[in-house]
Amino acid sequence: MRSYLPVVAEQLFKDIQKTYQETSQIPDDLLIALKFVFGPSVLQALDLVDQRSVTCVSSPSGRKVFQVMGGSGRLYTCFMSCHYCPCPAFAYTVLLRNEGLLCKHILAAYLCQAMGVTQQESVSDQQMSMLLGGTPTEIKY
Amino acid sequence: MSAVKRKRYSKDIKCIFFPDDVQNGVKKLGREPSLSSTSAAKCWERCGDSFLAIKNLKSSGRKLSAVRKLAQSPASVLTNGDQCNEDPVHIAWSSSDSDQSDSDSQKQHPPRLVAQHQQRPQRPRRASAPIQSCSSALPMLSDDKEGVPVIDADSDLNDSEGEDEKDGWRQISDCESGSSDEKPKDLPPKPAHMTNVEISGYVSDGENADDTMTPSRLDTESFPQLTGEGSKRSVSDWVRFAQAMLQTPQKQLDRKPKTPEDSAKKRRKFQSGGLAERLNRLQCRQRSAISFWRHQSISDTSTAPVDRPGVLVLEVLEVQEECSMQLARCEHHQPPSTGHQHPHPLSAARACVLVLFSKETAAQLMPAPGDIIHIYQPWQSLSIEGDNCTIILNTHFSQKVYSASKLDNVSIPRAVLPAEKSLPYSLAKIFGLLEGYNITEEEEATAKQVSAPALFSLGAPGVMSRCRQSLLEAIESLGQAGSVGQDVEVVVQRVYSIPVSDSPAGSMLKPRVPSKPSSAHPVEKGKTRLCVLVQDGYGMFSVVQLPLLPCEDSLHHYSQKWQGKACLLRSIKVVQRVTRERCTRLFSLIDSLWPPVMPLRVHGNTPSSETRPPGPAPSFCYLLSGQESSVEPVEEQAVSPLYLPPTKQNLRDILQSDLKSHRCSFVATVIYKRMQSSDVGQSEVWLVLTDPSLQEEQLEGPRKRTVALCVSTSCVLTSSVVKALNSPAACRLSFRDAIKEHGVLLCVEQSVVQIHPVEAESSLESTDGPESPSQSLAKPQAQANALPQPVRLDPLGPETKSKSLCTLTGVIVGVDQNTAYSWPACNHCGSSRLEMSVQRPETFHCVSCNALVEKPSMKVQLEVFLSCSSLSNCTVKVKLQQNTIMSILNIAAFEGNEFPGYEVENVLGKEVGPLTVYVRVVTRKPALWIGLEEVCL
Question: PANTHER family attached here (chain A) (predicted)?
Answer without folding.
Answer: ZINC FINGER SWIM DOMAIN-CONTAINING PROTEIN 7 (PTHR28498)
